[in-house]
Structures are given as structure tokens and as C-alpha cells.
């Protein structure tokens, strides 16, 4: 009986992860440019953050990997993939490491259950996942996209500006939403099963 319950729980977690990956992918189609060249707000990071905090690092990594593969096949192969290694770094790897947010699932859930303010923890652990994602993009930018840097500009500096700017823009979005959603954290991050 224990194995049956465990496999049912696993199925729920995997199904939830598939839905979150699909939602994150769907949100990718909403225009998300900040007006500054190449700096983008990625709305799918929010449901992915909630999922990773709800289900933990392993589930978060798997859902992020699924999101990255979806994004690579649905959008990246149309011009965002220069070669297989760059494609791997910027899609499955970069999107997958967003799941590192799940490192904070136990701490955040404990704080929420005890009625404590979890905003600081949510921001901290989300910053880990967001930073890991944009670090992958930074590396790929410096190595593979350097020819797109403005003439005379160091490609590493250009990659730092673009990917660092995207990291900051997404952290601002997260902070604003964390404060707006503060009252419903319990329903978002505490699984019922």
C-alpha cells in the first residue's frame, strides 16, 4: 500500500510539473521586452518558482528541463540555436537550473506553516535559481553571441549587461509579485498531498 500511495504522489507531482512547464511556455508568447535591447522579463519564472518551492529541487529541476526543451523546440530552433552545445546551455540547462529555487522549499514551507513572513526566503531562493539561469545565458552570450555585440564592445561586457539586466528585471518582477501574493503563499507553496 505504501508504494501505491507513493506512486500516486509521484504522478501528482509529475502532472503538476508538466502543467507548470506548459504554463511557463505559454507565458513565453506574451510580449516581454523591457524596451531596452535584449533585456526581457520572463513571466514563466513565476509559476516555475512557485512549483519549485512547492515540490522541491528535484521536481523543480525536472519541470525546468521540460520547459527548456519545449522552448528550444518551439522557439529556439527558429534562430536561437547556433550549435548543439550552445542550444544545450541556453535551453535545457539554463531553464533547468531554475529548479534550484526548490532548495528553499523546506525553509519556505516551514515559515509559511508557522505563520512567519516568508518573503525574504522566497526572494533569496528565487535569486539563486534566476542567477543560475542568467549565468548560463551570460556564458553562452560571451562565447557564442559575441559577434552580435555592438562594434568595439567586449562581448563579455555586452553579455553581462544584457543578461545581468534581464536578471535584475526578473528579480524586480518577483519582488513585486511576492509582496502582492503574500497573503496566499500558504495555498501556493504548501501541497495538500
Automatic annotation (TrEMBL):
Keyword tags: Membrane, Transmembrane, Transmembrane helix
Name under which the protein is recorded: Energy-coupled thiamine transporter ThiT
GO CC entries: plasma membrane
Segments traversing the membrane: 12-30, 36-53, 60-82, 88-106, 118-144, 156-181
One Pfam family here: Thia_YuaJ
GO MF annotations in UniProt: thiamine transmembrane transporter activity
Protein source organism: Companilactobacillus suantsaicola
Amino acid at each position: 500500500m505504501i508504494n501505491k500511495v507513493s506512486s500516486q504522489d509521484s504522478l501528482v507531482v509529475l502532472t503538476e510539473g508538466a502543467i507548470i512547464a506548459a504554463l511557463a511556455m505559454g507565458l513565453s508568447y506574451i510580449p516581454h521586452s523591457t524596451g531596452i535591447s535584449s533585456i526581457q522579463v520572463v513571466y514563466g519564472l513565476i509559476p516555475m518558482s512557485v512549483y519549485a518551492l512547492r515540490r522541491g529541487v528535484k521536481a523543480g529541476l525536472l519541470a525546468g528541463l521540460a520547459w527548456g526543451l519545449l522552448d528550444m523546440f518551439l522557439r529556439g530552433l527558429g534562430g536561437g540555436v547556433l550549435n548543439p552545445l550552445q542550444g544545450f546551455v541556453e535551453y535545457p540547462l539554463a531553464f533547468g537550473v531554475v529548479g534550484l529555487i526548490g532548495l528553499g522549499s523546506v525553509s519556505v514551507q516551514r515559515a509559511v506553516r508557522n505563520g512567519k513572513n516568508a518573503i525574504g526566503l522566497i526572494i533569496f531562493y528565487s535569486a539563486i535559481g534566476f542567477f543560475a539561469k542568467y549565468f548560463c545565458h551570460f556564458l553562452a552570450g560571451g562565447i557564442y553571441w559575441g559577434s552580435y555585440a555592438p562594434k568595439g564592445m567586449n562581448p563579455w561586457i555586452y553579455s553581462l549587461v544584457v543578461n545581468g539586466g534581464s536578471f535584475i528585471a526578473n528579480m524586480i518582477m518577483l519582488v513585486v509579485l511576492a509582496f502582492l501574493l503574500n497573503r496566499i503563499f500558504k495555498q501556493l507553496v504548501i501541497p495538500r498531498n
